[in-house]
User: Which sequence fits this backbone?
């Protein structure tokens, strides 16, 4: 069994991690470790995603199959952008 390992991120990923970590108020290392822990827990079934995750996505798909009613792409994208803007504003 491995005692641990290091991982190398290319320049683009390293910059993206650094930016995301700053928004989260964490060091890049702490940010990446939090992502690893969160995702390991999700895959192990020990946690639920904060956004509803697959269960919410599957419910939306089933509702679409049942009713045939869909949200226009522009509306969905506007909602996603608004949520991202709100989250980013809260991190500043």
Assistant:
């Amino acid at each position: 069994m491995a005692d641990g390992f290091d991982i190398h991120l290319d320049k683009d990923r390293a910059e993206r991690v650094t930016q995301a970590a700053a928004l989260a108020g964490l060091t890049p290392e702490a940010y990446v470790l939090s992502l690893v822990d969160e995702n390991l827990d999700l895959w192990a079934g020990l946690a639920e995603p904060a956004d509803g995750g697959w269960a919410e996505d599957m419910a939306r798909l089933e509702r679409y199959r049942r009713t045939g009613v869909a949200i226009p792409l522009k509306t969905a994208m506007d909602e996603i952008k608004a949520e991202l803007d709100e989250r980013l504003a809260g991190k500043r």
About this structure: The first helix runs from residue 11 to 24.
